[in-house]
C-alpha cells in the first residue's frame, strides 16, 4: 500500500466530489480562448486561491498544457504555515485529490537533495494549500500518467531560490518535465492599488530576471506570496533554455465577489523556450 497524503482542502478550497470537480475545472478551461505560445512550453505560473476565485485565471495557463505528456511535473509553491526550515517537501509517497492519487518521484527528489546544499525537510500531513490546489487542474489537462516533485519554499532569500532553481535544472536536464510555480499576488489592497502593484510584479515575471522579483518586494513596488517560488522556477527555466515569460491573464478576488475595497490579485503566465 502506498503512503498517501490525504487532502486537507478538498470540499472547501475546491469541490470534494470527483464529478463536480471535473465539471468545474473543464468549465474554467472551456471559457478560455487559448493563445499560441511563443515557443515550447516548459512551465507555467498560476495562482493558488480557492478554485472559485483563482480557477478562471489559472485556466489560461493550464489550458496550454493540453496534449503535453510530461513524465515529471515540478510544483514549487510557498509555505504559508509556521516552519523554520527553508525548503519543505512531503514525507508521503503520493498526493490524494478527489480525482485520484499522484505519485511523488522519490528518485528525482533524492537526486535533487544530493546536489542541493540546502536541506529539504519532509513533512507528514502538511496543511499547505498552495501546492495541492494546482493538482486537480494537472490531473484534468495532462494526458497519461505523471509523477510530481513537490517543493514548498518558506525561505524568502534570493540566494536560496537561485540555488534551488539551478539545482532543479541539473536534476531535470534530459528529462521530460514541466515546471509549475504557484503564487498569488498582492493581498488586501483596494482594487486600484492592487492593479498597480500586481502589474509591476507581473512585469518582473515577464522580464525573466528573477532577482528583480525580490527587488520589487524589497522596494514595495509589487508583492507575491510565492515570489521566492516563482524566482526559483524562473532560475531553473533559464538554465533549461527558457527565453520568454508571457502573462496570459490577470484578475482579483473583487472581480468575483464584487467587493473591490480589499482584494487579492491573481495572475497566470507561461514560460517558453525556442522550439
The CATH topology corresponds to Protocatechuate 4,5-dioxygenase, Chain B
Name the beta content range: 15-25%
Shape: globular
Q: Strand tally, please?
A: 12
Percentage of residues assigned to helices: 25-40%
Which tags fit this structure?
single chain, 275 residues, alpha/beta, Protocatechuate 4,5-dioxygenase, Chain B, 9-stranded mixed sheet, 3-stranded mixed sheet, globular
How would you summarize what this structure contains?
By secondary structure, this protein is α/β, with parallel strands linked by helices.
Description:
The strands form 2 sheets. Strands 2, 3, 4, 7, 8, 9, 10, 11 and 12 form a 9-stranded mixed beta sheet that branches. This protein has a 3-stranded mixed beta sheet with strand order 1-5-6. The chain is an alpha/beta fold and 275 residues long. The mean pLDDT is 96. The protein contains 10 helices and 12 strands. The chain is globular and about 50 Å long. It starts with a strand and ends with a strand. It has one domain: LigB-like (Protocatechuate 4,5-dioxygenase, Chain B), CATH 3.40.830.10. Helix 3 crosses helix 6 (158-172). The protein is 38% helix and 25% strand.
Amino acid at each position: 500500500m502506498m503512503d498517501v497524503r490525504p487532502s486537507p482542502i478538498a470540499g472547501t478550497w475546491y469541490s470534494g466530489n470527483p464529478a463536480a470537480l471535473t465539471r468545474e475545472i473543464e468549465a474554467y478551461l472551456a471559457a478560455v480562448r487559448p493563445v499560441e505560445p511563443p515557443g515550447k512550453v516548459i512551465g507555467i505560473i498560476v495562482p493558488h486561491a480557492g478554485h472559485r476565485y483563482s480557477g478562471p485565471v489559472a485556466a489560461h495557463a493550464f489550458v496550454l498544457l493540453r496534449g503535453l505528456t510530461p513524465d515529471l511535473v515540478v510544483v514549487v509553491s510557498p509555505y504559508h504555515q509556521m516552519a523554520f526550515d527553508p525548503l519543505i517537501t512531503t514525507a508521503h509517497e503520493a498526493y490524494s485529490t478527489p480525482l485520484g492519487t499522484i505519485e511523488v518521484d522519490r528518485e528525482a527528489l533524492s537526486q535533487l537533495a544530493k546536489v542541493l546544499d540546502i536541506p529539504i525537510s519532509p513533512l507528514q500531513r502538511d496543511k499547505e494549500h498552495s501546492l495541492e490546489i494546482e493538482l486537480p487542474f494537472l490531473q484534468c489537462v495532462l494526458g497519461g500518467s505523471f509523477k510530481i516533485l513537490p517543493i514548498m519554499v518558506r525561505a524568502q532569500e534570493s540566494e536560496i531560490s537561485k540555488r534551488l532553481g539551478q539545482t532543479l535544472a541539473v536534476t531535470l536536464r534530459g528529462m521530460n518535465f514541466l515546471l509549475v510555480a504557484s503564487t498569488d499576488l498582492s493581498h488586501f489592497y483596494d482594487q486600484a492599488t492592487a492593479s498597480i502593484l500586481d502589474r509591476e510584479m507581473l512585469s518582473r515575471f515577464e522580464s525573466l530576471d528573477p532577482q528583480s522579483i525580490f527587488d520589487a518586494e524589497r522596494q514595495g513596488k509589487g508583492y507575491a506570496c510565492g515570489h521566492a517560488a516563482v524566482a526559483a522556477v524562473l532560475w531553473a527555466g533559464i538554465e533549461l533554455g527558457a527565453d520568454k515569460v508571457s502573462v496570459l491573464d490577470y484578475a482579483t478576488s473583487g472581480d468575483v465577489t464584487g467587493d473591490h475595497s480589499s482584494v487579492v490579485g491573481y495572475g497566470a503566465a507561461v514560460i517558453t523556450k525556442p522550439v
